[in-house]
Specification:
single chain; alpha+beta; globular
């Protein structure tokens, strides 16, 4: 968290900065340890000053600003957010970008846990250095046949495979649980054991759920960390069917109670009635 819908919402929310020039970029005083930043903040500021922002795009779960010959890549990871309004507080403000010709507008990167990263790369090397080396096809762009080909050759549990950003970019823990519940696939089933009908269901519900979550501007969980670019909460959390509902009755079958298991050090939520695990022969 944030995942594809939240990062897409961030990108859409800050697109008003396109066409404006950058006055300065700096790291405000922060009592926490610095986040990973390449190159140094001083170099980032020097290279971006005076450059006009020409594009804002999402790359997997990253926010990318193209300015001149440079691409500023912000990876929010667990608790980061990019916004135009003042963040929840200034204690965890990691980066501030002031725009010179936008009535004093400012772009903020706020990260409570400090796991996010900032990286400045040449714009013409963005895809080669980040997309090609670190990410698979985007979850909203990939075709069904490519989706199956990239994920079905693994003996790992399907939930774990969905989280592998090198196979498929954008899906995280929350939406993987929601997608598999909608597709009626147990999260522990090996990806290589799924039938074509299962893959079709996973793919269809993946696209539906991600697009619905974007329409609701993402999910704000109980910790309240994620906010959109204007510092407002998302709305898709009201539509979750299994995530963080362990012990509660399933909304769909009305019989099963949501269970929580741990896969690859991450919590997984599922309904044992809607998502039965077939016995292996």
């Amino acid at each position: 968290m944030p995942e594809l819908p939240e990062v897409e919402t961030m990108c859409r929310g800050i697109r008003s900065v396109v066409g404006h020039s950058i006055a300065r970029v700096f790291a405000p005083p922060c009592p926490c340890r610095p986040i990973a930043m390449v190159p140094t903040m001083r170099t980032i500021d020097r290279r971006l000053r005076g450059q006009v922002i020409s594009r804002v795009r999402r790359l997997g779960k990253r926010v990318v600003l193209i300015a001149g010959q440079h691409a500023l890549v912000i990876h929010p990871r667990m608790t980061g957010m990019v916004c135009l309004n003042e963040p929840p507080n200034r204690d965890y403000l990691r980066l501030q970008m002031e725009l010179s010709d936008s009535a004093g507008a400012t772009l903020f990167f706020w990260d409570r846990r400090g796991l996010g990263t900032v990286e400045l790369v040449p714009a013409d090397e963005l895809d080669r250095r980040i997309a090609d080396q670190r990410l698979g096809p985007d979850a909203l762009d990939i075709a069904l046949d490519q989706f199956v080909a990239r994920l079905s050759n693994s003996a790992s549990p399907i939930k774990v495979v969905l989280l592998d950003q090198r196979r498929l970019a954008g899906i995280g823990n929350l939406y993987a649980s929601e997608i598999l519940h909608a597709a009626k696939v147990h999260p522990s089933r090996r990806a290589c054991d799924l039938k074509p009908a299962h893959w079709s269901q996973v793919y269809t519900h993946m696209r539906r759920i991600l697009n619905e979550a974007i329409a609701f501007e993402g999910s704000t969980l109980s910790d309240g960390t994620y906010r959109n670019a204007l510092n407002h909460p998302g709305g898709y959390q009201s539509h979750h069917r299994v995530y963080d509902r362990a012990g509660h009755r399933c909304f769909v079958c009305r019989r099963g109670r949501i269970r929580r298991i741990v896969q690859a050090q991450r919590s997984t939520f599922y309904c044992p009635i809607c998502q039965p695990l077939p016995r292996r022969s």
